[in-house]
Design goal:
- The protein is mostly helical.
- The protein is built from eight helices and no strands.
- The protein has one domain.
- Helix 2 runs antiparallel to helix 4 and helix 2 crosses helix 6.
């Protein structure tokens, strides 16, 4: 069984603590996560065709197995990234899948930006979440805080609660006493 400190490190987000940054971070995570789901559904709709056209072409053994692995990684990992649950492990799987897709496109068509573009953007996004975690507005942050109440700074906790993040004008953060 993993220790609490190890689990805390897995779930603890590493990001700038500001409301606009964390909101944009969460929006990117949700959009990229949910957009990736359709790729897994497309693979499953005709797994044999995908295995032949993509997996066999790059020379991987057991093309049906790896096709199912890619589809399930996208169908399970993408929603996990979207809600911010086990974000780093899910992002690792999705980043790997996108690296294989990039390799396939380069092998088949060279450095054709039209074919590489979407896979490269997805890969970069998943690498970002692999490195940074799910952010403060994620299930991971809630779990990290539950495992260790000191895992997140007092400032991050104030932002997560959104109680005193901004004054009524929305322009300036409110001063909060250090006891919170």
């Amino acid at each position: 069984m993993l220790s609490t400190s190890t689990l805390t490190q897995i779930f603890k987000p590493s990001a700038t603590v500001s409301l606009p940054t964390q909101t944009a971070f969460a929006m990117l995570r949700v959009v990229v996560g949910f957009m990736m789901i359709h790729n897994g559904l497309d693979k499953l709709s005709n797994i044999e065709s995908f295995a032949q056209a993509y997996v066999e072409v790059i020379g991987l053994p057991f093309p049906i197995f790896f096709s199912y692995l890619a589809a399930l990684t996208e169908l399970i990992g993408a929603p996990m990234v979207a809600i911010g649950f086990l974000t780093r492990p899910a992002a690792l799987g999705l980043f790997g899948t996108m690296c294989v897709a990039i390799y396939h496109h380069i092998l088949v068509a060279g450095f054709n930006l039209f074919l590489l573009e979407l896979s490269a953007i997805y890969a970069a996004c998943f690498l970002f979440f692999l490195v940074n975690g799910g952010g403060l507005f994620s299930v991971d942050a809630l779990i990290a805080n539950w495992l260790d109440t000191n895992a997140l700074s007092a400032q991050a906790k104030r932002i997560m609660r959104l109680e005193q993040a901004y004054q009524a004008s929305g322009a300036e953060p409110q001063k909060v006493d250090s006891a919170n």
